Each structure stands twice: as C-alpha cells, then as structure tokens.
Amino acid sequence: MSIEISNESGIEVPERTLVDVADFALAAMDVHPGAELSMALVDTETMAELHMRWMDLPGPTDVMSFPMDELTPGGRPDAPDPGPAMLGDIVICPEFAATQAATAGHPVEHELVVLTVHGVLHLLGFDHAEPDEEKEMFGLQGRIIERWYDHLRAQGQAQRQQARDASLLNTIGFTSDEPGATSER
User: Is residue 23 situated within a structural domain?
Assistant: First the structure.
C-alpha cells in the first residue's frame, strides 16, 4: 500500500500510527496491496469549509472521505485481479478529534485510530445513513480496531521476548554480530 500523509493542522499527531492503522484496515478489507491512499490532517477552519462545501453542513466535523476509484473489498471471485487503484482522500481534524476524545474519556490517539478506520471504510463504500448500514459499518469498524490493538500487543510481546532472549544469550556468552547469527565468545 502507498499511504501519503500531510499534516496541515498545526497539531502534532502520531502520523506513523495513522499510516499503520490505515494499512492494517486496508489489508483487513482485502484491498489490493498496490492501492494508494492520501490522508490530510487539517485545522478546524479548513474542515468547516470542506464540510460546508461537500456536505452543506455548517461547522467542522471529525473526518471526511473522498473516494476516487470504485472498489469492492475483496472483489468478486469471478473478476480479474482489480490491480492497484487510487482509493481517495481521508481528511481528519485532530482538534475536533481531541474534543471528541475528551468527551468519550479516551486518548486522542485512539480517537484518531477510530477516525482513520472510519475514513477507510467510507472510501470502500460503507455508510451509516440507515440503521442497518450503521450497524454493519460500526460493527466492522470495531472488529478492525480490536484486531489492530491485538496486533500491536502481539508485536510488543514479540519484541519483549526478543529482548529477553538477547539478554539471556549475552549472559551465557553468546553474541550476535549480525541478525540471525550467534557465536560463542
């Protein structure tokens, strides 16, 4: 996946985390690995302008998605490989997200993760205008986020185990001069 991120919000955000969770969500939705996605982080004034221009709604919002190519997650089994495509743009307002996070009582980083996955799902054609659509989209969003956090925990466990192993090998006289190679001192 090619994911570009541009932070024009004036607020420091964990950009690497947002790219990683977007990549994770796209992979979970079986989007072609050559797909391209653009993410922009904007201030409340810019988001309010976009919200009015594209949704005819006043004031800023948390996230907006602008799809480019028509894609179906996983594609049809009888269709040829769809190949890479430009998915579109996700625009997030970190300041608005911070307010929502405070109201919900969770970290801003989590709110940004939720908004990123939400934006990805909108790019893939999911919506929440009707109750059944909302149930499907928010259920899927919750499952992807849960799997994302499971993935992070597993990575952390693997890194801690690797550090313990290296420490143990070092104390018993083995060193590692290059990845995968051990030798006795």
Answer: yes
